[in-house]
Amino acid sequence: MMKRKGEDEPWALEPEAMAETVDLEGRWEDLDRLLLRPGYIVGPGFEPGIELRDMIKNDCRVLVIGAGGLGCELLKDLALTGFGNIEVIDMDTIDVSNLNRQFLFRMRDVGQPKAKIAAERVMERVRGVNVIPHYCRIEDKDPSFFQGFQIIVLGLDSLEARSYINALVCGFLEYEPDGSPDLTTIKPMVDGGTEGFKGHARVIIPGVTPCFQCSMWLFPPQVTFPLCTLAETPRSPAHCIEYVHLIQWGQDRPGETFDADSTDHMKWIFEQAAKRAEQFNISGVTYTLTQGVVKNIIPAIASTNAIVAATCALETLKIATMCSKGMDVFMQYTGTDGVYMRTFANEKDTNCIVCSPGVPVEVEADITLEQFIDAILTDSRFKNKLLKPSVSLQGENLYMQAPPVLEEETRPNLAKPLRTLMSGESGILNINDRKLKGVLRLQVNFKTADVDMDAGAGG
Amino acid sequence: MHLNGTDEGVSVLRLDVTESALKKRRLDREATPGVQAMAQRDKKYDRQLRIWGEQGQAALEEANVCVLNAGPTGSETLKNLVLGGLGSFTLVDGSSVQASDLGNNFLIEWSSLGKRKASVVCSLLHEMNESVIPKFVDESPEAVIDSNPAFFRQFTLVIATQLSEFALEKLDLICRQYNVVLLVARSYGLVGHVRISVEEHDVIEAKPDSRVEDLRFHKPWPELRRLVEEFDIDTGDPLVHKHIPFGILLIKILEDWKAEHGGQMPSSLRELKAAITSRKREHDEDNYNEALKAAYLVTSPPPLKPEFLAVLNDKKVEINSESSNFWIMVSALKQFMENEGEGEPPLDGSLPDMHSFTDYYIRLQQVYQAKAEADASTVEERVRTLLEQIGSDPDRISRTSIKHFCKNARNLRVYRYPSIADEYRARVGTEFQKLLAAEDNSNAALYVLLRAADRFAGTHKRYPGTADAEFEEDIALLKAAAADVLSEIGCHSASISEDLVGEICRFGSTELHCVAAVIGGVAAQETIKLLTGQFMPLGGPLIYNAISATATVFEI
Fold it and tell me: Contact at 8 Å (CB) between B228 and B255?
C-alpha cells in the first residue's frame, strides 16, 4: 500500500501506473467518513463498510437522463461521490448558449452530441469512472434498457419527457395481493429541475412516494395567448411575435416548415413582428425577445443547476447506501429573496393512473367485459390516455386487442359478464394500451352485491 | 506563468493568458451588434442576460473577486462565477494537491498530484472560460491575512471558504476597513454555512417574485381621469362594450358608485364587485371578468412594505457631502412622497395586459408611462437641488439612474450585517432562541455545533472525529464545547440532540463534493446578487442541512 507523502515531498510514483491497480490511498477519505463509519441519522438497514464503497463503484448502475445544465453537474457529482458505472442519454447537440452553465463543453464542441462530450470529459477528469453515452431520444430505448439500472436520475427540462420516464418506470412496479408494492420491482428515480434562481429536487420511489403524475399540479400550466387576441387586438410585443410565428408564417410562407434554429427564419419572424408592432403602435419587439417567445426560452444559470444537481446526487447516494436519512420528498429552492430551501412530504394520489395500486372504478354488477371497456374509454379520468385497451387479471388475458391470434382467442370473453370473469370478486385489473407507457391498474368494485357473493364485494 | 510583481508584499502569480483574455473580451464586445451577427458573447450568456440584463452582466465582468482556499467549496464557487463571465479572480491557497483532492474536486486532474493547488485550480478554471482573468497566490490564506492585510483592498468582494472562526474574525476586520464585501462559505460533512459580512448593501432592483401592481385605481390622477371620461362604458355597441380595458371600467364604476353614495368608497369588496357585475352584459366579457378579479386593487391598494418604510426612515436619509448617490436619491424620494406624491412613491409606469382593443390599451399605457416619466422628472429635480445643497455636482447622478431608481422605488432594500466578531460575542436574539427551542431544532443546533467544532479545534488542534481512535472522546468534548457556546449566546437551557453531535463527529470536517457543490452554488448566487445589486441577498447566516435537504437563514 502507498503512504501519503508530505506536502513538500515530490510525488514518487507515476500516477498513470497506479490507476490501473487500485485507487490512491486516501482518495475517498471524505466519502469514507460517511460510508465506513457508523452513523446516527441514517436510512434503514445502513451497514457501513468498505463493501458499500465497492458496491457503488462496481455494482450500482446509475442512469442520468439529460446531459444539459443539470446533466453535466450530475455526472460530475455522481463521479465524485464514488459511483463507478454511469450512463447518460441525451438527444441534443451542444449550442453556444449552453456554455454559461454546461461546464463540460467548450466553444470548439458546438454541434457535437452532448452525451458523448460530457461522458468523455468526466472520464478524463475523474479517473476510474466509466460513463457510457447514448446519443438518442429516450423513446428510442427499449423499456428493458431502463430496467438495467438501479437508480435513474432525471435532469430534464420538459414535462413531457418526465411524464414519459415516470410512466415507464412506474410500469415496472408490481403490487402484492395485499396492495403493498413488491419491493423487488421498485426502481427509484431522483428528479431535478431549474428555472433561473429557482429549482426543485425530489425522490420518487414508485409505490411508496408520490410519482411525477401524482403531483403534476405542482407545475403551472404554460401561458398561451388566445388566437383572436393575436389576430385582432395585439397589445404586447409578445402578441405581435406569436402572431407572426403561429399565423403569418403559414400564410406568407406556405409549405415551409418553420425551424427555430434557423437564423434566417428567426430573423424573418423578428422583422415581421417589428412591422406589426409598429403598425399597432406597440413598442418593445427585440430580436432577443423574439427568440425568447418563439423558443419558449427558460432562463438558466450555473449556480442553481449546481445546487439542484448536487441535491439529487446526494439523494442518489442515500438511496444506494442508506448512509443518511433521505429527504422528505420534494425540495423547493428559491434564491431570489435570500435562500429558501425546504422540503414537503406531499401525498400520493390514490387515483393516479400511473402508480396507484388500483384506481377505484365502480361498475354495475352485470356489466359485460365489452361494456366495461367502453366505460373506461369514456371515464373522464382516463380521457385521452387510452385508445384500444387490453384487459388482464393477474397475468391472465381477459381481452387482448393484439396480436390477431390472441384477439380471436379472447374475443368470446367480451360478451361475458365481467363479474364471472373475475370469479365473482372485486379486484385489480391491469389495462395495457398503446397510449400508456406503463400499465394502468384498476380496482374494480361491483355496485350491488349478490347475497351469496358478498365475500368479494368489499374492496 | 510569471510573477506579476508584488502586491502589498504578496506574490501574485498570473497565468500567461492575461493578454489573450483581454484581447478576447475586446473582440467579443466589438463583434458587430444587431441581428445579423448577434455577438458571440451575447449568445453565450443569453440564458443569464435574460435574468440580470446587460447592466448585471457588466457588473459581473468588472468585478475582481478573491477566493480563499482552493478546495471543492472554493473551486465550485469560482466555477459558477467563471462560467457566468466574472471579470477577474485571485485564488489563494498554499497547499499541494493530495490524493483526497482527486476524490472531491473536479478542478483538479490526476496529473496534478503533488503540484501546487492554487496554480492547478486556477488554470483549469481559466480553461473553462478564457474571457476571465485568472490569478493565484501560492500562500496560505491565514498567512496572507496575518502578514498583508492591504492585499485585500484591491477586491470588489472576498469569498472566504473553509476558514476557521479565528481567521475569519481577522479577515472581517480587514474587509470592513477597506469596505470590501466578505462572503463566508463552508462545507463540513453533510452541513454547510454561508454568511455575508458588510456594513451596508443597498438594493435598487430587488426584483421580487410577486410584483406589486401599482395602478392607482383608487386614486386616479387628472390625466387618467380625463382618459376615463372619453369612454362611454354603457355604449350600445356590444363589441366596444367587451373591449374596454378593465382599468377604465374599474375607475369609471368606482366614480359612479361614489357619486351615488355621497362620495363614500364602497364599504366592502363585495359591494364593489356587485356594482361591476351589474354593468356586465354577457357571461363571456373577458374585460369584466378581469375587472372582477382585479377589483381588490381599488379597495385595498398595495401597501408600502415595512422594509421600504425602514429605508425611508433610515438615519442616512439626512444627507451630507459624504452621502452616496443611493441615499441622495432616497432623500429626494422621501421629499417627493411627502409633497407631490401625496404619500405614494413615483408610479413605475407598467401596465399589465388587459383584454381590450389595441388602441384603447395603448392609450391607457401611454398615460401610465407619461405619469411615470413626470414623477421621475420631479424626483430628478429634487435630486439636483439636493446635490447643489450639499455642495456637489448637480449632474453627478444621471437621469437614467434616477429613472431606474424611481421605477423600482417600491422595492428598495438596505441590508446591514453585524461584524463576525459581534456575531460571535453577542447573545442571540429571540428569533434564534425560538428556533432552538422548537421540537425540530436541527438547523439551529447545527449552527451551534459548527461553532462548537471551531472552538474544539482551537483547543485540541484537531476537528472532532478526525481520528477513529479518539472518536468516543471527541463526542464528549464536542458536547461540552456546544454547551459552552449555548451558554455564551444566552441559550443554556436549549438541548442539542446526541444524534447531531454524533453526526458532526462522524463527518470529521470533511469536504464532500456534493455538499461543496451546493454551498458553491449558494455562494456564487449570493456573490452575483451582491455584485449586480439585483435581487435580495441573505439577511443572516445560513445553515444548509444535507441530511434533510433543507436550509435555514437565521436572524442573529
Answer: yes
Q: Which of A1, A3, A22, A100 to mutate to test the interface with B (most CBs of B within 10 A)?
A: A100
Pairing of strands B133-137, B191-197: unpaired
B234: Cβ contacts below 8 Å, ≥ 6 apart: B279
Instruction: Kindly report the CATH class assigned to A359-456.
Output: alpha beta
Partners of residue A313 in chain B, C-beta under 8 Å = 514, 517
The band of B36, judged by pLDDT with boundaries at 50, 70 and 90, is very low
Give me the pLDDT at residue A269, please: 97
Q: Residue ranges of chain A with pLDDT lower than 70?
A: 1-22, 449-459
Q: Looking at domain A50-220+300-344, which of 3.10.20.30, 3.60.20.20, 3.90.190.20, 3.40.50.720 is its CATH number?
A: 3.40.50.720
How far CA B520 is from CA of B182, B525, B526, in Å, comes to: 15, 8, 10
What separation in angstroms does the CA of B258 have from each of B218, B223, B299? 11, 19, 13
Instruction: Report pLDDT digits (tens) over B77-125.
Output: 999 999 999 999 999 999 999 999 999 999 999 999 999 999 999 999 9
Q: In a 3-state reduction of DSSP, which class is residue A203?
A: strand
Q: What is the pLDDT of residues B60-87, one digit of tens each?
A: 999 999 999 999 999 999 999 999 999 9
Q: Any idea where the domains of chain A sit in the sequence?
A: 50-220+300-344, 227-294, 359-456
A136 is catalytic: no
C-alpha cell of residue A136: 438518442
Q: Measured between CA atoms, how close is A443 to chain B, in angstroms?
A: 35
Q: Which residues from B are below 8 Å from A4, CB to CB? A: 98-99
pLDDT tens column, B432-477: 888 998 889 999 999 999 999 999 999 999 999 998 889 999 999 9
Buried b (16+ CB within 10 A) or exposed e, A179-218: eebeeeebbbbbbbbbebbbbbbbbbbbbbbbbbbbbbee
Q: Are strands B10-14 and A390-393 parallel, antiparallel or unpaired?
A: unpaired
Binning pLDDT at 50, 70 and 90, where does residue B21 land? low
CB contact under 8 A, A338 and B544: no
DSSP-derived secondary structure for A318-364: HHHH--SPPP-SEEEEE-SBS-EEEEE-PPPPTT-TTT-S-EEEEE-
Query: Of B451, B471, B459, whose CA–CA distance to A33 is shortest?
Result: B471
Residue A378 contacts residue A363 (beta carbons within 8 Å): no
User: Inter-chain contact A288–B49, Cβ cutoff 8 Å?
Assistant: yes
Whole-model pTM? 0.92
Please report residues of A whose CB lies closer than 8 A to that of B49: 288
Q: What is the DSSP letter of A96?
A: G
pLDDT at B15 (0 to 100):
63
Instruction: Please name the residues in contact with B16: beta carbons below 8 A apart, sequence gap of 6 or more.
Output: B1, B2
**3-state class of A435 per DSSP?**
coil
Question: What are chain B's domains?
Answer: 2-199+514-553 (3.40.50.720), 222-299 (no CATH), 306-356+365-415 (no CATH), 420-508 (no CATH)
- Among residues 172-231 of chain B, which lie with CB inside 8 Å of chain A? 189-190, 194, 206-209
Helix (H, G, I), strand (E, B) or coil at A113: strand
What does the pLDDT read at residue A246?
95
| pLDDT confidence of residue A447 | 86
Q: Which three cell numbers stand for residue A192?
A: 431535478
Question: May I ask the CATH architecture of the domain A227-294?
Answer: Orthogonal Bundle (1.10)
**Quick one: cell of B400?**
437614467
Per DSSP, what are the bridge partners of residue B536?
Answer: A337
- How many angstroms separate the CA of residue B202 from the nearest CA in chain A? 14
A13 vs B193, more confident: B193
Q: How far is CA B190 from CA A308, B508, B518, B537, in A?
A: 15, 10, 11, 23
